[in-house]
Amino acid sequence: LNSIYQREEETTFSICSSALLTASLLVAMFILKIFSSGAERVILGTAAYADPAFLAEACRRWPGRIAVDIAVRGGNAAVSGWTRETGVPALTLAKNCESLGASWVVYTDILRDGAQKGINVEGTRNFARALRIPVIASGGVSTIDDIASLLPLEP
Predict the structure, then answer these.
(1) How far apart are CA 98 and CA 84, in angstroms?
(2) What mean pLDDT comes out for the span 144-151?
(3) What is the pLDDT of residues 1-53, one digit of tens each?
(4) For the purposes of burial, counting CB atoms within 10 Å of the CB of 6, is it exposed (0-12), middle (13-18) or buried (19 or more)?
(5) Spatial distance between the Cα atoms of 58 and 51, rounded to a whole number of angstroms
(6) pTM, entire model
(7) Beta-sheet pairing, 104-109 with 84-89
(8) What is the 3-state secondary structure (H, E, C) of 46-88?
(9) Is the dihedral of CA 78, 123, 129, 137 positive or negative?
(10) In the chain, how long is the greatest CA-to-CA distance?
(11) 142 — phi, psi (to 5°)?
């Protein structure tokens, strides 16, 4: 039984690794296309969470040009178009992305995005204070006052 379980575990790992490699390759090709079209920067989302080694390689290959959008719901990161909660604290993911070479982070409060409830200043502040890289606030902007509320966070 152990032998069968071991083989099944190895097969599952191989399938997952192949799918991850395929997804990462497609994202890499997309990044190349974006940069060859004249874009200065690329923002990664789920790919940064799903494949940290890919994020590190992208940051190494295109230094200063890779950012990560971290979608936040209730303090945790959400991926796959905000449909899957990771259970990973968003700030932990942001620090990991920073350590892998991300040039900046987009903090997206998904409970406010499109709702015109105003920026999550506290969440943005927590990110900005904990990271050495720039943080861009996203989600909830409805008036110029929302943008003005972020000015005290500027270094």
Answers:
(1) 22
(2) 79
(3) 333 333 333 333 333 444 444 455 667 777 788 778 888 888 888 888 888 98
(4) exposed
(5) 11
(6) 0.75
(7) unpaired
(8) HHHHHCHHHHHHHHHHCCCCEEEEEEEECCEEEECCCCEEEEE
(9) positive
(10) 64
(11) -130, -20
Of the candidates 46, 42, 44, the one whose C-alpha atom is nearest the C-alpha of residue 80 is 46
Burial 32-50 (b: 16+ CB within 10 A, else e): eeeeeeeeeebebbbbbbb
Q: How many CB atoms sit inside 10 A of residue 15's CB?
A: 10
Helices and strands, number each (H, E), in the chain: 6, 6
What is residue 109's three-state secondary structure?
strand
Residue 90 one-letter amino acid: A
Q: Which residues of 68-103 are buried (b: 16+ CB within 10 A; e: fewer)?
A: bbbbbeeebbbbeebeeebebebbebbbbbbebbbb
Closest CA to 42 of 129, 103, 120: 103
Please give the Cα distance from 147 to 28 (Å, whole number): 33
